[in-house]
């Protein structure tokens, strides 16, 4: 009997020890708590069940949240692809606006400038644009709106021929058509030689194009592009000057044209390179940490660098251009508009014997300012070009800003896995769902609120 009682006491002590261990594991109440051990065990088991259920629900919520964020990320990436293609179109658009402005929209100012340059007997030099405005109004009233667009087809034809000749010579002789930072001195010399040959071959057609551009619309017949090709080809093969005119032979114009053309081309390359580096350095200094429009900014920098190079080159070589145009037009019996009044027409009558003789006679009879006749037309040309390019850039910036300010999804906030309701979680939780380790940190590299 005593043995049985001793055994019961031993079993009871063992049960009490197990209950105390379970209480300490669950951290419900201290081991010395006076509560009933059975009640403590029931409370601990209920707590474990509740925690397991909550953990499973939290894991399900996290998985649903991750799926929704993945959908938002896919939508965001699609929008980014569309925005990138639109930015490419904006870059191409700004580039084409720049080309259109330089070669087409600036042609009326080119007509005014060339007419002022070749008229040696003019009283008004038009050194600033204000004196040209009344003449433009009078020309439009007398000859119509198309009077300043004459010769545009021939000018575009000459520029196209120059590019085509460069390409053909480059393919036949393997001379470089363009220069870069890796060009050797030998390749540079070959490139200069290519440009010299191109200028010499295009010179007769450029002379004919000059005549078609400056001649008055009411004192001459309209000509087509085939007339430019025919007359230019005839001047290529006529190396001697005609007996009954003062026209200079082609060989007498090749030397001045090549020397002035090559010097002007190299000076333009130098200014373009310097201005491009300055623009890029300024762009790097002013660039924000988040600048997704690098391509558009680079295109704007190239556009402005080209504009600065062209403006500087035209200003520096304006007197030489005046002399060369007078030599090319001499003896062609061209009648131009009188830009002193804008109402009448006048013939161009000169008798220069060469480049230096033209310079000497011009300075003596017209003064040093005579070399800058029509400078106001060039000012108008560049003001119009800058205004159009500024407008195109502003439009592109507004479109790009509209893209960047598009409403986006809210910022992804990583779920806090450690903030459970009870830090005393049981080790008996179900491993099927609650033990899933959801990784949201991979979304950290995507900023959905940009």
Descriptive report:
Its main location: mitochondrion. Solcar repeats lie at residues 297-399. One of its GO terms (cellular component) is organelle membrane. With 450 residues, this protein is an all-alpha fold. The chain has a domain at 107-280 and 306-392: Mitochondrial carrier fold (Alpha/alpha barrel). It is 66% helix and 1% strand. A hairpin with a 7-residue loop joins strand 1 and strand 2. Helix 1 (2-26) packs parallel to helix 2 and helix 6 (185-214) packs across helix 8 (250-286). The N and C termini lie far apart (84 Å).
- In the predicted model, the low-confidence regions spanning at least 5 consecutive residues are 1-9, 27-35, 407-450
Percent helix, as a range, is 55-70%
Q: Hey, roughly how much beta strand do the residues contain?
A: under 5%
CATH homologous superfamily classification of one domain: Mitochondrial carrier domain
Order of helices and strands: HHHHHHHHHHEEHH
Major β-sheet strand ordering: 1-2
Number of strands: 2
Instruction: Supply the number of helical segments.
Output: 12
Mean pLDDT score? 77
Architecture (CATH level 2) name of one domain? Alpha/alpha barrel
The Cα radius of gyration reads 42 Å
Task: Report how far apart the termini are.
Answer: 84 Å
Under CATH at level 1, the class of one domain stands as Mainly Alpha
CATH topology title of one domain: Mitochondrial carrier fold
Helix/strand class: mainly alpha
Largest sheet: 2 strands, antiparallel
**Overall morphology:** elongated
